[in-house]
Amino acid sequence: MRKLLASLVALTAFAGFTSQVAAQTATGSAAGGEKKAAMCIGCHSIPGYQASFPEVHKVPMIAGQNAKYIASALNAYKTGDRKHPTMKAIAASLTDQDIADLATFYETLPHDKKTLPAEPAHKPSAEVAELLKKVNCVSCHGSNFSKPIDAAYPKLAGQHPDYLFVALKAYQTQNNPQVGRSNPVMSGMAANFTHEQLKQLATYIGSLEGDLHVVPQPRFKMNETHAQ
């Protein structure tokens, strides 16, 4: 029975995944995305910028993120699979071409980065290692959490821990019209943990070296000094 349920969950997740990918068929242009990013830079181009909904947390770093994942996430906000009033309103205004262009733009933003190690530079505590092993996070997100097995999955290493914590809790949220994420695999995994355990996972993964970064716009340079 457990194997049957696991298979059904996997099939449901795959169906949702392929439908989101199918919705994004346009070829992205970084130059086109740069022209359309005005609605994004007010949050994602200010180092240390914090959102207040559904709780205070830093907005995610998206520069250097996989374009395929960014497109998938925007489509999920557009369809309501991800619930967030502000992001839904923004995504609803975007065409498939807009989404492809923005995703390509943020993936290709320049960053002086080193070659990331195949394994995390520092190991988790024994307790966190058990939590990671419990749901086999590396099977999708990669052993260093920055090289997922498919570009439709996010890079996680170095992401803001408080954002990761909010995102993981969203997968546990059900029947809330304002908050929550519909993903059978991630919801099933998140259900295995308490909030304190999710925070431990988020803290460790966020402490790792990764590709994600913030590229400030010139008008926000002063904020960079404030945020440090």
Structure description:
It is a single chain. This protein has 228 residues and is mainly alpha-helical. The chain has one domain (2-107, 116-227): Cytochrome c-like domain (Cytochrome Bc1 Complex, Chain D, domain 2, Orthogonal Bundle), CATH 1.10.760.10. It has twelve helices and four strands, in the order αααββαβαααααβααα. The longest helix has 22 residues, at 2-23. The N and C termini lie far apart (52 Å).
According to CATH, the homologous superfamily is Cytochrome c-like domain
Rg, nearest Å: 17 Å
State the helicity in percent bands: 40-55%
Instruction: Provide the residue-averaged pLDDT.
Output: 88
Count up the helices.
Answer: 12
What fold name goes in the CATH topology slot? Cytochrome Bc1 Complex, Chain D, domain 2
Measured distance between first and last alpha carbons: 52 Å
Total DSSP E strands: 4
Following the backbone from N to C, one meets helices and strands in this order, namely HHHEEHEHHHHHEHHH
Approximate strand percentage: under 5%
Uncertain parts = 1-23, 220-228
* CATH architecture name: Orthogonal Bundle
Order of adjacent strands in the largest pleated sheet: 1-2
Q: What's the CATH first level?
A: Mainly Alpha
Structural class designation: mainly alpha
